[in-house]
Amino acid sequence: MTLSPEAGRNGLKKEIPAFRFSRPPSADATIPITLYNPIFSQFQDDCKTYEPTTRDHDFALNLSSSMSIYYDDEKERAKQARKDFGHYDLEFVASQINGYRTDGDLRWKSFSVAIINMKPELCLGSAEPLLEAAWYYIALTRDHLEANPGSHLPCAHIGFAGAIWTDRPHLQVLAPTLPLFCHASDDDMRMQIARCLGATKKAILALKDYYEFELPHITALRPHLAFPHPSKYHSLDGATTHEFKYLSHLDEDKLVFCGAVDNDKICIKFVRRYSMEAHVRCSSLGFAPTLKGFERIPGGWYIVVMDFIEDEYHNLETSPDKASFESEVRVSVESLHEAGFVHGDIRSANIMVKKDGSPGIMILDFDWAGLAGQVKYPMGVNDIDIRRPNGAQDNEFIMVEHDIEMLNYMF
Asked: So which residues are the signal peptide here (predicted)?
């Protein structure tokens, strides 16, 4: 059986898709695989920063040369690719997986570490190669799940994508698909190819170590395998390290979790950008939860750890007496501006107030915040469902006036 584009579309019409993937976006998982296993996040970093060796460059040149030849038969292309990878110490074998035959399968202790899937030329053939490779991965790993209840069973693909199991398989593209037929004078493209291939080899070796050394020690079933892999944070001054456990996923659409260090509850958040400085400033003034930890982790992520806001608070959106908090909210935002910062997303959804109506608000979500005149809006600003000021658009400067206008909309 192959998974053709049409079969893929039909399959994704089901309420529960066969596996999580970005086609369509609604089938995607909230938690990306780069937060489930550090091998994938490190791979993404390596695709940008890895320094290729002479051997990496030689392999990239040889693979580019051999794969730039026209092939009428995908078996011949796959045979040559396996030969090239073999010279790179990555021994792929054309094998059977539950009735399917792969173009190249690299295994370690019966686990598939990587799968190659080939087509004679791009877009030719009865199946899209990435989805077909994902189907092979599902077929091979399904039988391992009961024997390895606490593992995500990760697998790196060259192409470049990764796959992992939680409640079902997750497939995620990790790096751009690169042409192997670049001009000999295009040093930037050749460097990018060598860097990604070197990163791929590094990830494959890391996966072999995972199956060799880590997997045998994973015995406990993590609840629903529903939480990211980071389980510790460093204090802001770097003096202490704290291990924590996850308790719940606070919002299914966001990377925000409740956790605990011993008996103390914390809030753990994963973001691509964040203003630690703005958060600390608001916390010092008494209208933001105490920031306990903030650091960059591989894959372009930041882990943000703060005090958990207890049940005495609720969202300003749900407050029956919203207007009574206007003065306190305005004074707090003005204090942020006086310190030289802007927030960028002042909305009732990002403000917590006490249920009994007493003073003591909490401003949240400093993802867009930063120094006024320096920080810009991210891409994908939602100005359809959320009313925003003129100029509050992708890659434009966040202005003090925008925060004030958002306050006016709110009240």
From this structure: none
